[in-house]
Amino acid sequence: MNWKGHDILDKLVDNCLLESGERMYKEEYVSMHDLLREMALEISPQFLVKASIALEKLPEEHEWRENLLKVSLMRNHITEIPSSMPSPKCPMLTTLLLFGNKISTIPEAFFEHMLGLKILDLSWNRQLCRLPSSISKLEKLTTLLLFNCSSLREVPALSNLVGLKKLDLCWTSIEELPQGLNMLTNLKYLGLGGRLSETLDEPLQNLSKLQHLLVVADSLSKTEFKWETIGIWGKLQNLERLYLDSLHNLNMVFGEVGAIAKLASLPAGTFSSLQDISVRHWSESKEGEKVTLPNLERLKLTSLPLLKTIYSGSLICDSIKKIEISDCENIESVFWSGFNPFPNLEYLELISLPHLKSVFDEEGLGLSPHVPPTSFFSLKEIRVSRCKQLKKVFSSGWLLHYFQSLETIEVSWCSQMEELISSSAHEEEKVTLPKLERLELTSLPSLKSICSSSSVLICDSIQSLKIFGCENLKRIPLNFPLLDNAQSSHPPSLKEIAVFPKELWESLEWDHPNAKDILFPFCKFQLTWG
């Protein structure tokens, strides 16, 4: 479904019906132009859309037409649905979005005449205490979203909602699992939260189609989730994504013998479909124990106060392509091992690691300039942000021989960063990154050079160079194809150089004597930055 959704969005963007954009940390989004949106609503009489207009009351009874298909009242200031209001007679209605309001009560019979409803989103109604029993009659419902309804304490029986595919109860105050949860055999996405104290083993046993399991424990709760046995894992053969972001320890799931050790004892093939794990308080295995997750593609580690380095060989993930590590206050190095446990890693993102001192340590990794460049050969993107003790990303120039597939390097808000690439006097003078397309350096006040005075970085594929807020940067030891082939009739790969402030451009020193004159046409001087 995710891939199909992205395909649809891509087609809409290609046909200029949606506009794509990018927020901080490269979060992508799409939006519709206001004029286009108004036109779409004007020619769609079966849609009732009053979103983000500070609406305080539900639309009047006459506005709920019988032919309505979709209603969106999200992000308003609606506080209640009056008990005197009859159930809207909308038998064709399939989608009702009430996300982001202040609704505290919903009349018991409100959904009586909406029996065709498939998607109901009540998320972020923090004053909502209970749901009407008429929800139990919505037998065609496929999606029920109650995320962050923080006052919600109970949910009506769900046993009739056998078509439900997505149920999100995260950050609610429910103390008991909804009655009939084990009957939802078509469920693919399940988000659980609140103050549950019962076991999850039995309710999850029948959910054989479950692909995405998200478990969030209420930090204010005195109780914790109880995982008495691990029998359910052998039955969740289709599980692709497992999120345990707020559990105090992954051992809560797999028992007291250690998370990785317990994983190793599971039946063969249990996690054969698992592609995405996101956890807090990850537990290491005992010395000598290893586990292989054959299809894991993404690993996200967040808020791990005890973690000092990523695995030293206990976890083998040949298929992993993306690693994200953030807010781990005591991590000192990312990779420390006699070998690289992630040979197919393509994307590495490190955010808010205040004690990080080393990303790639050739001594810890057992790498040598005399060894063929096999480790990390697949890495395409590396992003480092808010690591205030990190002084360099690559601890030596020859280490870059292991990163010949790199396409993007982004480093930002690292206050002690002095060099991107550190090199000793005896190392070779030229280092090549043949596929590097984008280099972005942002808010690095201590940065003096991209690499040491004895080295030159050759980037034949460079397209974009951005330097913002690096006031002490003096030398740019980059060798662009354009500099060596100024008379060439072929268009260079370089497309832009963005600099802030403009004075920085004047003070920069280049190895090529005519670099400033040749590169000036590619410059864009930012007026503001931040």
UniProtKB/TrEMBL annotation:
<dbReference type="InterPro" id="IPR050905">
    <property type="entry name" value="Plant_NBS-LRR"/>
</dbReference>
<keyword id="KW-0611">Plant defense</keyword>
<dbReference type="Pfam" id="PF23247">
    <property type="entry name" value="LRR_RPS2"/>
</dbReference>
<dbReference type="InterPro" id="IPR032675">
    <property type="entry name" value="LRR_dom_sf"/>
</dbReference>
<dbReference type="InterPro" id="IPR057135">
    <property type="entry name" value="At4g27190-like_LRR"/>
</dbReference>
<dbReference type="Pfam" id="PF13855">
    <property type="entry name" value="LRR_8"/>
</dbReference>
<protein>
    <recommendedName>
        <fullName>Disease resistance protein At4g27190-like leucine-rich repeats domain-containing protein</fullName>
    </recommendedName>
</protein>
<dbReference type="InterPro" id="IPR001611">
    <property type="entry name" value="Leu-rich_rpt"/>
</dbReference>
<feature type="domain" description="Disease resistance protein At4g27190-like leucine-rich repeats">
    <location>
        <begin position="370"/>
        <end position="476"/>
    </location>
</feature>
